[in-house]
Amino acid sequence: MNEQDIPHETMNAQVSPASSQQGEPDGKKIDYWGYIVLSAGVGALIWGLVSAVGTGWGFWEYTSGLKGVAGAFLLGLGAILIGAVQGWRVRKAINPPPRARRWVGMVVALLYVGWVGTFLMAALTVPAIHDVSTDLADPPAFQTLALRTDNLDNIPGADDSDMRGLTPLQRWALVHQKAYGDIRSVRINEPVPTVIAKAERLAKARGWDVAISLPEEGHFEATDTTAFFQFKDDVVLRVRPSDTGEGSIVDMRSVSRVGISDLGMNAKRVRAFLADLTGTVTAAP
C-alpha cells in the first residue's frame, strides 16, 4: 500500500492535530496573578493617599487615617511579595504570562511602601515625644494658642528603672536632652523688635498661620500645617535682651497638636527656622 491508497479522510485525521498545534495556537490563559499584583499595588497607593487626604479634609479622625495608611502599607508589601513569588515560579516557563502588569503593580507598591517606610524609620530613630524646645528648664509659653491638655501624657521612660521617680516633665527633659542636645537658645546681634519682625516674615514665607506677633514684647506665635494629613504644629518664639544688653536671646518651641511621636518633625522645624533667623546658629552662653 502506498500513500495514494490511504483514504483522504485518514490523512486529514492524522495531519489536522499537528497543523492545529502549529498554525492555530490555543486561547491565551488569563493572567490572574498579574491582575492581582497590579490591583494590590495600585490599590495600596490609592488607599494610603485617600486615608491621608481624607484625614486632612476632616472626613475621619487622624487615628482612622493612620490605620488606613498602615493597612495600605501591608497591602503594598503583599503585592511586592506575591509579585516576586510569581516571578520566581514562572521564570523557566515555556510560555510565561506577560510581566508588564506584575511589574507595574510591584513598582507602584514599592513607591508607596518606600514612602511610608521613611516615616517608620524616623519613628525608630527619634524619641516618642512631640514637644521640642530650646529651653528645657523654662520653655516658652503660649499666650494665644492653647497648649494641648495631654502634652505630658505618654512620655517615654515611665517603666524605665533609670527614670523611676521622675515626673513626666523631668522625663521629657531628659529624653529631649539626649536626643536633641544641639537644640538650644541662640544669640542674635539685633534688637528684640527686629528679631520678631524677621521671624514673622520667615513664618509667612513658609506659609505658617501667624496667631500673634508682638515685636516690642518679644513674643510670636504661629501654626504650621502639614501637607497630606493637615496636622497642625504650634510654634512660639520668645526673644529677650541679652544680659549684656547687646543683641537678643531667642528661644523657640514647637508642639504637635495630636499624636505621641512627631517623627522628629518639630526638631527639624526648630533647627531650620533658627538657622534662617540667625544666618548661622550660635548657641547662647
From TrEMBL:
Ranges for the region named Disordered are 1-25
So which domain of life are we looking at? Bacteria
Q: Enumerate the UniProt keywords alphabetically.
A: Membrane, Transmembrane, Transmembrane helix
InterPro entries referenced in this protein's UniProt entry, alphabetically: DUF1499
Q: Where are the transmembrane segments?
A: 32-60, 72-91, 103-124
The Polar residues compositionally biased stretches are 11-23
Q: Which Pfam families match?
A: DUF1499 (PF07386)
Q: What is this protein called?
A: DUF1499 domain-containing protein
Organism classification, top ranks? Answer: Bacteria, Pseudomonadati, Pseudomonadota, Alphaproteobacteria, Sphingomonadales
